[in-house]
Amino acid sequence: MRKSLIIILLAAIAFSVNAQVQVETKIDSIEILIGEQTNLTLSVAMKKGQSLQMPEFTPSQYITPGVEVLSSNPADTAVLDDHTVRVNKVYTLTSFDENLYYLPEMTVKVDGKEYKSKSLALKVITMPVDTLHPENFFPPKDVQDNPFLWSEWSGIFWLSVLVVLLFCVAFYLHLRLKQNKPIIAHVRIVKKVLPHQKAMSEIEKIKEERMVSSEDQKAYYTRLTDTLRKYIEERFGFNAMEMTSSEIIERLQQAEDRRMIDELRELFTTADLVKFAKYSTLINENDANLVNAIEFINTTKMENMPTTERVEPQLTETEMRSMRSRTALKWTIRALIILASVLFVSVLYHVYLVL
């Protein structure tokens, strides 16, 4: 009794193991014409993690005499549940002989153990031929020479003409552009000397030339007041060179120290007397006026003014029009080239479709 139970248990275990591996085959069509193709699908269901080896065929290898395997696709794996997967592999078959073929069982190996599928059948038939009337057989036809249709080519022709015209116009405009000499306008960044630096540099020259003790007092005061006028013009922003001494003083009174304005008024008054009334001054008076000028500059100077200046060229109206015309011409040439290129690609595409 015990031996019988053991035998039954082992048989049940073996049956359950075998039941976990299922091998199936199916064919898309069991009947084909000579030279047609059909797909044979080999499907294997097994546990996850098991190794599988499926049959491999080289192209044109016979699966059975008279039936060729043209190709086979890579195996495709699908998960059925947490423990089972299904692997499918498709073989493409064909035959060139009329017959009913027996497709043998296909053998797979799962963890080294062989499992077989069921056998299939494939029927290959030919087209019915009327052998009683051979006069109805015709030889293969030659390559057909289709007639030329202008309606098929007219659009391509006129589009090609337009492409050539666009390229010609672009080339002509390019030549015109090369013939006209371009106007180059460079923007320069120059170092700017601050107003008080210019004025002090000029006063140093006056000292070096000893104009304070010179007999030509008119030249001395003219040069000293011109230096102050230029400084005031650049520092305060009004046209001091074209203004009288009293007008300059009135403009300065709004912002500057009263004592400095009085000293500057005295300097300008003395200068006007020397230049216009032939007034003679003493050397110490000349020195005092020079010191007043230096003190005024040092008191009103601004150190935080920009030290560089952007110098832009001044172009005439004709030059500006010429520059605008050249820019418009360049953009026109680029647009024509792009448009002609796009149309040329379109022509090639339509020629390809017609041919």
Task: Explain what the structure shows.
There is one protein chain. By secondary structure, the chain is of the alpha+beta class. The chain is built from 8 helices and 14 strands. Strands 1, 3, 5, 6, 7 and 8 form a 6-stranded antiparallel beta sheet that branches. Strands 2-12-9 form a 3-stranded mixed beta sheet, with no helix packed on it. The protein has a 3-stranded antiparallel beta sheet with strand order 4-10-11, with no helix packed on it. Helix 6 packs across helix 7. It is elongated, with a radius of gyration of 54 Å. It starts with a helix and ends with a helix. About 2% of the residues have low confidence.
Provide the helix percentage: 40-55%
Strand content: 15-25%
Output the number of helix runs: 8
Low-confidence stretches: 11-18
Which structural category fits the helices and strands?
alpha+beta
Rg (CA only): 54 Å
Throw out a few tags for this protein.
three-stranded mixed beta sheet; 8 helices; alpha+beta; 355 residues; six-stranded antiparallel beta sheet; 46% helix
Short description:
With 355 residues, this protein is of the alpha+beta class. The chain is built from 8 helices and 14 strands.
What is the strand and helix layout of this fold?
Layout lengths: L1 H18 L2 E6 L3 E3 L3 E11 L4 E2 L7 E4 L2 E6 L3 E4 L4 E11 L4 E5 L3 E4 L2 E4 L3 E6 L24 H30 L8 E4 L3 H14 L8 H20 L8 H8 L5 H19 L6 H18 L7 E4 L5 H38 L1
Parallel strand pairs: 2-12
Antiparallel strand pairs: 1-3, 3-8, 4-10, 5-6, 6-8, 7-8, 9-12, 10-11, 13-14
